[in-house]
Batch of 4 targets.
Target 1
Amino acid sequence: MATTVDTEAGAVSFRPGNDVPWADLDLVFGERGDPASCHCQWLKTFDRTFTDMPREERTRRFRAEVGCDDPDARETTGVVAYRDGEPVGWVAVESRPAFVRLRKTRVAWAGRDEDRTDEGVWAIPCFVVRKEYRRQGISHALVVGAVEHARQHGARAVEGYPMQFAAGKEDVWGELFVGPRSAFVAAGFRQVTHPTVRRYVMRLELR
């Protein structure tokens, strides 16, 4: 995976999750806060299952799904971004049905009528950017890297479910884990629906 994106703070390159050391991904997720607690399992489970699952089990499942340190792994999930050799961010990207919670998320399907189990459509539902690298174009770069990863694995289309806050409003509750709308627009995605004041469904057709 050779994609490189120029950001205001330098070039960002990408590696699929199975092609990076666990220590790099662990550094991106950190030891505190929502990313470290969730490890992308909220999207892979339903409410009671997620709530009852110990944090250590979420981490174990995530590590198994990513398959770090195994470049020959047949399956993986997500892409890690690097700048100057330093891991700076992560984006979840996989065939849409893998994110089981998306199947029942009303805002993702409002005004739409299509097969929710279509494996040819991939989803970009979650971002993690290290605090010291935020507001530097990393999210946009991650979208580009995720699209390239999906393309190389046969995706027909890629979707995202970003947020956009009103001018002057800030992300108080961490809702921007889904990514900012501007990052998808910059990567060529088009708006499919606008189900709530702040939520958008964006899509890029690949073939």
Target 2
Amino acid sequence: MSLKSAVSISLDGNNIVIKAQPRQGWAEAAKRAYENGDDELLIPDVFEDWTW
């Protein structure tokens, strides 16, 4: 599956305005990742050498 980012580009006087468009399908993709077990952390949540 490929998620793509879209932007809109416009002019505001002498300024070029670039705005990100919300990505479609993220909620569904996150749910599928959870159901498939693809949402596990790739690094430990707490590091061994962490001191308080």
Target 3
Amino acid sequence: MSNFFWKDEDFDVFQIDGLENRMTALIKNVRPKFEELGKQYSLYFSSALGDEYFPHVAKHARRSVNPPKDSWVAFAPYKRGYKALPHFQIGLWGSHLFIIVAVIYEAPDKVAIAERLLKKKSLFKKLPADFIVSGDHMKPEATPLKQAKGDELEQLLVRLRDVKKGEFLVGRHMAREEVVKLTENEFFKLAEETFEQLLPIYKTMINRK
């Protein structure tokens, strides 16, 4: 039995035609891994932050025609949902894996979150240069942080503050070709290191020192 956590077939799920066929493969191949990660990292966040954190594995239940282009497990300190809160995610697109912290448009506290991040932009200088930022969780594309540390980072945060549909994501993208070479232990270590690096950003989002 291989000790690699992610496999090519996990990413290939997103090439399968048709909602039913893609969901069948997603539920069989990928969802058990998200559930495993959910158990592991909800405990990690609960320990690191002192509140109980809950995993939320994407179910894609509202879809009736279009198959999902990505999938994920999210973490937040609320059992019934995560979209209204800043939250962490581990997820897959067909092209890459992402490990991020995000504020999406459903968050009612977006304005205050953006203002806190704008005041503490220096935190982003402490993140690895290969991290990414994005203003749209529905798109796979993102900007490397080393390119965005000037005007673009500020523009994304201002948009989060001023635009109703504004969003902000920061974290790590990793090409599938690299991800499938990681052993289970290597992947868990990478995920935990990424979350540790993102914790200061998250604490600023939730206004905790």
Target 4
Amino acid sequence: MPPVNRIADYAEDMTAWRRWMHQHPELEFDCHETAAFVVERLKEFGIAEIHEGIATSGVVAIIEGQGDGPTIGLRADMDALPMQETTGLDYASKVAGKMHACGHDGHTTMLLGAAKYLAETRNFKGRVALIFQPAEEGGGGAGVMVEEGIMERFDIGEVYALHNNPGVAFGQFETTPGPIMAAVDTFTIHIDGVGGHGAYPHDTCDPVVATLGICNAIQTIVSRNHKSLDDLVVSVTQIHTGSADNIIPDTSYINGTVRTFDPVVQDMVERRLNEIVEGQAASYGVTARLDYDRNYPATINDAQKAAFAADVARDIAGNEAVNDKAGREMGAEDFSYMLQSRPGAYLFLGQGEGAGLHNPNYNFNDDVAPIGASFFAKLVETAQPL
């Protein structure tokens, strides 16, 4: 699985870039220090057209090829997670409660490596738009960048992204035509009862019992209200109530996530949640309110672009290291907004064994960065050959 030789020469620099970013994680839209680091590198590469402050701290840089042609977009996310790192690495996060636990430092590094190579060689026609995006983990930074007009402003015709994949063989690419990542919705249920002494429950309207009834009923949405062949996840992830063993509280709070691919299924889940909350509240004599928020839509690859990207990956990794029918995941990704705006594809790149994503012991595998950078570079050269 040979990376481009010239990009392999950057391996030491790429490791240094990535580890600096790993030590300086930033959250959501507040990626100003990371963006400044990216801009400094881009200027070192001789890239003159750099646009800053998009979606607060996002960056779009343009590399001109040789001769007229279309513009291809390459995206990397920059934000970290609100987690305390436990790796013990000598380049571990220096910021308490913040950590690059999803490898966005590696994604940004791969795009920087491709940028350095493409700026040196310019062995393509048209232009490349390098998209460094904040707020993938929360806030939908990709959607904000699209709303702020990057596709039209920079005349981007197609767009691609990579995400590392721990637990998958090192250097193996995976993608699929059509849906690859789920839509994600969030529900919150506020329950109001009448509290009192735990020894005298008959004098209360117990929100704890109502909470348990609602949570149990929610489980029937998947088991009894949807066709088993339709992908659906409904998970209760938080319950908060009470303060002592002898006090029945006044209120309770339920929070959870819904993952779907079909808007019809999405509509059904929202309707059933409303019915369950209303009916269970009435049966327990409490009042309850459902807040249902539709967040990132499903990430849907253009079938032709996914097949094209898989072919490019084969040039880098070989036939055996590319799975172009990997199926879809129930995780979510705000790159979905960019794919709603322009055709393109989202791919995973295996980085071998290690802690999984969003784990406090996670670490991006620096050895995979030249492979991802080579994929981005060859994607451009293949899509827009001289």
